[in-house]
Amino acid sequence: MSYYLRKTLLQKIPLSDVTIWRMEKAGEFPKRRQLSPGRVGWLVSEIEAWIESRNQAAA
Fold first, then answer.
1. Whole domain around residue 19: which residue ranges?
2. What's the pTM value of the predicted model, to 2 decimals?
């Protein structure tokens, strides 16, 4: 499995860290995964699917 770490995710998604956190809590964004103590990541496949769904909704 491949993961986006926070820095990479923030470069890919034009949203703030706080906005992503709020969207996660509301169930509007893929949940982060605990990779190790102090490190989280988001599954690349889930993020790519989320981006695609946003692109389709905008079309």
1. 3-58
2. 0.89
